[in-house]
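We now fix the convention by which a protein and its fold are recorded. Here is one such record, which you should read through line by line:

>
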Amino acid sequence: MSTGKAAKLLGISVKTLQRFEREGRLVPVARTDSNRRLYTETQIREFIGLRNAVSEPTRLVAYCRVSRAAQKPDLAHQRQVLEEFVVAKGLGERRVHRGSG
């Protein structure tokens, strides 16, 4: 997969992905004849820790909080944004556990 597609899957810019290569954090598996970087989906999944996402279910916890009681109405908005993010990124489905603390 191209650098642009890999960067999009990781949620980072192409420049950041290029920096990761320079730092040795995520080195492309190959380069094209025109020297463009190529990554595999498996490589990207391993980098973000989703190596066994299909075969081994994991739990993702998204946490929302406010510092004052007057801000409590903002919790619903925070929750909605986090739920949409998790679903859009394919990290899980909407399951809500409400707690207090």
